[in-house]
Amino acid sequence: MESRTRPRIGITMRLELETERFYLARYYSEAVEAAGGLPVHIPLIPRPDFIKQLVTGLDGLLLPGSNSDVDPLRYGRQPHPQLGAVHPVKDETDLLTLVEAEARAMPVFGICFGLQALNVSRGGTLIQDIVSQHPDAIKHEQGAPRDRHSHRVSLLEDSRLGQLANSDTAPVNSHHHQAIETLGRELVATAWAPDGIVEAVEDPRTDRFVMGVQWHPEIGWERDTFSQSLFNRFIAEARSYAAIAADGVRQGENTSAATR
Fold first, then answer.
1. pLDDT tens-place values along the chain, 260 residues long
2. Residue 224 contacts by C-beta under 8 Å, 6 or more apart in sequence?
3. Residues 102, 151, 216, 237: which is the catalytic one?
4. Any catalytic annotation for residue 112?
5. Catalytic residue among 87, 112, 176, 237
C-alpha cells in the first residue's frame, strides 16, 4: 500500500442558521492545499459512529474559526450576558473529532474557535467576553481589513511557534471576543498578547503534534511567511503521520502473509 502524496486534512465546517447551510471560508482549504495537503470538509453531523469512520481516513485535523461561541455549560460555567450565538452541532462535532484525533495521536491544528474548542476538550475554561471580563485588555476584534496585523504576540522561545517564527515575537491579526482562561490537560501556553491573553497553545508530548493559535493565519497567508510556516509544518506532520500509518499497514500485511 503506497502512502498518499498529499495527506488528507479534515476541516470541520460552520453552520449558517438562517439558511441551514454548512459552509467554510475558502482560505482554510486554499492554505492547506498550497502547503501540500488535501482538504476534506467535515459536515456538522455529531454522530460518534460517523465521525469515527470519517476520521479514520484522515491524516490531520484542522479546527477553523466559527461565528459561534463554545457553550459555557461544556466547561462548567453559566452564560455571560455578552456570550455570542452557540451552535450545539458545531461544538459536538468539533469535540468528537478531537476525541478521535487524540486516540490516534493525529496532528491537530486549531485556529481561533478551534483553539478554544481544543482547550475545552482538555478540561480548560474560557473567558466568555474579553471586554467585560478583562478590562485592561487591548482591542482583540480589529474589524476590516481582516488581514491587517493589529498587534504582536510574545512567543515562548523553545516552542514550535518560536522555532517557526525564528523570533520571540510575531505580528498577528485579531478577530475574537473570547479567549483561554485556564489551560486544559496536556497543553502549555506558547504565545501571549501584550495584555497577557493567551494567544497559542501546544501539546508538549513528543509523540504527537497539537497546536492552536488565537489569530487567523489562513487570512492573508499568501503574503505572510509566518502563516505559511504554520501550515507547512502542520502538513509536514500530517505527511509523516500518513507515512507511519502506511508502514503499519504494510507490516500488518507482511505478518499476515507470513502466517498463511
1. 344 589 999 999 999 999 999 999 999 999 999 999 999 999 999 999 999 999 999 999 999 999 999 999 999 999 999 999 999 999 999 999 999 999 999 999 999 999 999 999 999 999 999 999 999 999 999 999 999 999 999 999 989 999 999 999 999 999 999 999 999 999 999 999 999 999 999 999 999 999 999 999 999 999 999 999 999 999 999 999 999 988 765 455 454 444 44
2. 147, 217
3. 216
4. yes
5. 112
Q: Which among 92, 102, 199, 218 is annotated as catalytic? A: 218
Identify which of 189, 190, 143 has the alpha carbon closest to the alpha carbon of residue 162. Answer: 190
Distances in Å between the Cα of 115 and the Cα atoms of 35, 111, 203, 211 are 20, 5, 12, 8
Q: Which three cell numbers stand for residue 222?
A: 499568501
